[in-house]
Amino acid sequence: MGLPLLESTNQIDDLFKKRYSISLPSTQLTSIKISPNGENLAVSASNGKIYIYNLADGELITTLTGHTKGVSEIVYSPINSNILASCSDDLTVRLWNTKTNKCIKIFKKHTYHITTLKFVQKGNILISGSSDETITIWDITSNKILTTLAAHSDPVSSITLTPDDTIIISASYDGLMRLFDLETSQCLKTLTNSTSHYGTATASTNDVLNFPISKVEISPNGQFILSSSLDGKLRLWNYMENKVYKTYQGWEKAKICEKFNCDVKFITKLKKNPLIVSGSDNTGLLIWDVQSKDIVFRLTPEIAGKDAILGVDIYDQGAVLCCCSRDGVITVLDLNEKYIKKAENEEKEQQELDPREGYDETPAETPRTETPREESPGNDTPRDNITRDDTPI
């Protein structure tokens, strides 16, 4: 399926259509999330407020107040669209009921800015990462801390979970990604640019300088990790094999996550044309074709916001896409129906030719080693059934 190619123009390609934009002047927006039921849109800001909108039309429903400093990230409970969690520079994690507009719980443990949050799928456990270099796992039912992990040697910038909720994946400014067993807290594996041969060697030594990693996201089938680093590149990792399969970047003057922690997401609505989307420092919103690495869509700064796009989220596998910027612009877009229909028709035709054809959506086998495995001709380590030219996500 051919997608329109866009490199650097002032035109919005027709892959996505803008539904609406909202402007909050003099407000630095930090994170954006769509509720699991697709009804509401939550946006956090550096002024400590959280704005809740009707996703359909952008009408403001309520504003949540309580944090005394900037809100770093927000996340909805996977099982209750009225429950929202937030983390802040005020060193608290808060749980909100967006229906009653009340803060229902406050959690305190971290000693420095809290940077990232993630719910497990059952909604009973919340995981936070902090600039104090730790990860804390909270039982929100009992209000107890289950454990605190001394995860990194620099601030924890991002966390995600495998689809089966067994593995925490953390990223840090120390240039490392670590995989922890959620139940045992054991570190199963450490991924670094040096193991994937993407590090930068110093002039006087053989040491490798690992660029700080700002965001991580797991693919829907659990086989790949997408990371963004402050060298301005996105990398698609097969973490079972300790390999980077593809690298994505902008053009020469495009600043992709070189200064700010910009969200990255997978878009799988187009079936066999998986996409990745990222915010940027100065280039608007960018979308790449996973296979070709071409930029197939750009929402320019004139529309998405002229400052950095920090928050990005999707709904219905990317049928709805939203983003927010540091200069107070919220944008909601819809995937063009003609591309959705085309993808569905092509998949149907292929299945009629070969009913077995399709992507393997079986989650990757959980890694159980603490250090990366060395490759050898006799290595019988299970491997994902992929090639560089055909990368299911």
Keywords:
single chain, 393 residues, mainly beta, Methylamine Dehydrogenase, Chain H, 4-stranded antiparallel beta sheet, 44% strand, globular, WDR5-like beta-propeller domain-containing protein, WD repeat, repeat
Give an overview in words.
This is WDR5-like beta-propeller domain-containing protein. Keywords: Repeat, WD repeat. Pfam families: Beta-prop_WDR5. The protein has one domain (about 15-200, about 210-350): Methylamine Dehydrogenase, Chain H (7 Propeller). The protein has helices at about 300-305, 335-355, and strands spanning about 15-25, 30-35, 40-45, 50-55, 60-65, 70-75, 80-90, 90-95, 100-110, 115-120, 125-130, 135-140, 145-150, 155-160, 165-170, 175-180, 185-190, 200, 210, 215-220, 225-230, 235-240, 245-250, 265, 275-280, 285-290, 295-300, 310-315, 320-325, 330-335. By secondary structure, the protein is mainly β. The protein has a four-stranded antiparallel sheet with strand order 1-30-29-28. A four-stranded antiparallel sheet has the order 2-3-4-5, with no helix packed on it. It has a four-stranded antiparallel sheet with strand order 6-7-8-9, with no helix packed on it. It contains two helices and 30 strands. The two termini are about 15 Å apart. The radius of gyration is 20 Å and the shape is globular. The longest helix is centred in the C-terminal third of the chain and has 17 residues, at about 335-355.
